[in-house]
Design goal:
By secondary structure, the protein is an alpha/beta fold. It is 41% helix and 16% strand. It contains 14 helices and 16 strands. It is globular and about 60 Å long. The protein starts with 6 loop residues before the first helix and ends with a helix. The model has no long low-confidence stretch (mean pLDDT 96). Bound molecules: pyridoxal-5'-phosphate. Pyridoxal-5'-phosphate binds next to helix 5.
Length: 389
């Protein structure tokens, strides 16, 4: 008998977005709207900062929690954006991406056999990371009330068991574009406190928010309502805000004991995020608002264009998203969303992400990433319309 892969590793489901993308990548002329990233390159001032950091010698190991200067920059960012005071030396851990922050935070609070409540439809990596910790994700879908998604607190209450340790939610949401209001957050915090759970908020889309008084007002952060002694973690990343998906830099904000443990565990995962990328992230945080504002104008126009186009298509129901860069229309006749997306890809060469990839509540819908060029979106909407008709 030859050595085999651990059954616990084999149980981690593969990404159905990736499965669709891999078919699309073998084809020519596909309009690719399946991945969650902007088509814009990283702004030049950030690239120059990375080059300068390399020239200045930022090519060595750094602290496990990240460069003190970057942690100070992150603390300043929270002060400016949310009026929240953080201690850079004990409440912030820099990670090599948002998904690594998710991994580290989850690993710190779950033992094998524990359960984690995950609000869905959601980016599959949250539930997959719970499974990677040999724990069990319990999905609780949002419900649609009118044209706004809501948290199903009754379902959350009945999903809690003595093994539940964590509640994970994403706001602004991938794929829904739903943005938690302070009132939603207050209720989530209250729920987590009552049941003695860790509350983990994935806020990586916080700057892609269309509900604020100013175009670049961030979505509300749970850190504003929670005290620093609450069992709360926030996952962040430079990927979406500054068009830096390939750079791999994020962070975790958490209660001091968790931050200390996550810092220690980081040594055994990646040790720390790349040194010069950390320096580039400092620059992005300092000087990023101008490019971000330009991107937000384009994203909002793209959202409005796609929303209007979808609303005219037969059998399509589409709530208006308040954040992120996705639309998540429900399509009559897409009961098997993977099969629907595959047919759309083969027949019309439009690549969308199947709703089934996002867990409970996702089947029957498709995710469209509208962070693309206007002409690509126009062509994609016209092909989708023709396909549906
Ligand atoms: C909800 C959500 N969280 C976290 C991430 C992670 O981003 P990154 O690992 O690129 O920092 C993503 C990326 O798609 C996401 O959609």
């Amino acid at each position: 008998m030859s050595a085999s892969i651990a059954p616990s590793a084999l149980r981690i489901p593969h990404s159905r977005i990736r499965e669709l993308a891999e078919i699309a990548m073998t084809m020519d002329g596909v309009l690719k709207l399946y991945f969650g990233e902007s088509n814009l390159p990283t702004p030049d001032y950030i690239k120059r900062a990375a080059q300068k950091a390399m020239a200045d010698g930022f090519t060595f190991y750094t602290e496990n929690a990240g460069l003190p200067s970057l942690r100070k920059g992150i603390a300043r960012y929270y002060q400016e954006m949310h009026g929240v005071e953080l201690d850079p030396s004990s409440e912030i851990v820099v990670t090599a991406s948002g998904v690594q922050a998710l991994n580290l935070g989850i690993r710190c609070v779950l033992d094998p056999g524990d359960e984690a409540l995950v609000l869905t439809p959601a980016w599959p990596n949250g539930a997959a990371n719970v499974a990677m910790a040999n724990a069990k994700p319990v999905e609780v879908p949002h419900v649609l009330a009118g044209d706004r998604y809501q948290i199903d607190f009754a379902a959350l209450e009945s999903a809690v068991t003595p093994k539940t340790r964590l509640l994970l939610y994403t706001s602004p949401s991938n794929p829904l574009g739903w943005v938690a209001t302070p009132d939603d957050q207050r209720k989530l915090l209250d729920f987590a406190r009552r049941h003695n759970l860790w509350l983990m908020a994935d806020e990586v889309y916080e700057r892609l928010n269309y509900t604020g008084p100013k175009p670049n007002t961030p979505a509300p952060s749970i850190l504003k309502l929670a005290s620093r002694d609450d069992a709360v973690m926030v996952v962040q990343s430079v990927s979406k805000t500054y068009c830096m998906t390939g750079w791999r830099l994020g962070w975790l904000v958490a209660r001091r004991d968790l931050s200390a443990r996550a810092t220690q565990l980081n040594e055994f995962v990646v040790s720390h995020a790349p040194s010069f990328v950390q320096r580039a992230a400092e620059t992005a945080l300092l000087w990023g608002e101008g490019a971000l504002c330009d991107m937000l104008v384009r994203l909002r126009a793209n959202r409005d264009f796609c929303l209007a186009a979808l609303q005219k298509m037969p059998g399509v129901t589409v709530p208006k998203p308040d954040g992120a860069f996705y639309l998540f229309p429900k399509i009559a006749g897409a009961g098997d969303s993977f099969d629907f997306c595959k047919r759309l890809l083969m027949d019309a060469k439009v690549g969308l992400a199947p709703g089934v990839a996002f867990g409970a509540g996702g089947e029957g819908s498709v995710r469209i990433c509208y962070a693309a060029e206007q002409n690509i979106l126009q062509e994609a909407m016209s092909r989708l319309n023709a396909f549906l008709r």
